[in-house]
Design goal:
Structural class: alpha+beta
Helix content: 55-70%
Radius of gyration: 54 Å
Number of strands: 9
Strand content: 5-15%
Amino acid sequence: MSLRLRLNLLITALSLAFMLAAGWAIVNDAKISIRERVEAASRVTVQLLDNVIVTSVMNPSLGETTEVLNVFLRSLGYVRSSQIALYDYRGNVLYTSPQSTYRSDVHPPQWFVNAVEPKKEIVQRHVRYGTLVVTSSAAGSIREAWRGVEKLMWMGLGFFLLLNIMVYALLSHSLRPVRHILGAINRMQEGDLTVRLEPFKLPEFDTIGQSLNRMAESLEAERQLEENRQLTALIQSHIEDERRSLARELHDELGQYVTAIKTFAVGIANKTVEKMPDISSNAQTIVAAANHIYDGMHDIIRHLRPGSLDNLGLSETLKDAVNHLQKQHPAIEFKLELAGDLDKLGENLNINFYRIVQESLNNAVKHSKASKIAVTLKQDKAGNVSLIIQDNGLGMDVNTVDQTQHFGLLGMRERTQAFHGQFNIASSPKKGTTISIYIPKESIG
């Protein structure tokens, strides 16, 4: 059921309730008026007839009272609101007053008669040789009242119809913007976020239209942001693939060459150690250079793609990374805390967690001058994963730092948001820095 129809039905119901209340009040007033009118008329009639009876009794020369009443009543004729009957001592009807002809063309419905007709009052006067009976009659008054009520009913019906037509037309005109708003919402549901509503004349609808336009702009921006995140995730995935491939090439190809050079140099050194010590010394130099190249190559491979991540899992890889940094920076106390089943998070999440930890630790070592760095990675019972990297270094004023210009922080934020996670950084000068990351269970797998 449409809003316009509901409002129209509501106004119709209220109008009917008002008309029924007004009708009840009018009928009730008519009932009271008819009763008072009939009672007054009956009282006057009875008093008049009582005077005739008294006059007849006091003047016997006028004849018998029944005869005097008969003559008087016939000359009186119709008496409004009263029905008069005269009977002789045997009960025979001597006279009956004629029926009321007032508003005889009006025929009120029976429900109206039942609603307003007062209780009949019967007054009897026993006279010599007869009985006079006066019965109240409201027929004329009822017809008169119905004529007025009928006019009011027709006027009310006309007003009711006119009101509903005007309300329907007004609602149709006023609610016309609703169709445009619903149309815009349907288009947005279908994916068209470029839809915009024009300003409306009514301030309420104009406010709704402006709010809907702002929502569409926000959704469009959010969709573009989501597309950018997906693109960033795809680029990062390709980068990781290239790093994996490059690390494999370095290990397989360059590693073999370095090993071969070292093997040949060792052989030359062994064979010339006694006869050609100079050549043996040069060979030992080549062996040392090969070892240095081999160690440097493994450091490069570790940065490109740690082999332990594919072979041993995230936990062991993080332990290896922290131990390696501990050896390189013995003055810094590193602490790693792991909890939960962290080796079943999936390859994509594993490499992103590793990169975030790698970036955070490198930043802390290079810039924070911290003496303690703690890394906590946990998976709770519900399956959500949280990562916290905390140091006691110099810290920074987060409110004055443009994080979009710090590509390390920006990269960590983008990696987190790619999994619909939450990224927060809390820091203050000389109080250290804490990076908190939360990944919901729905994004893991």
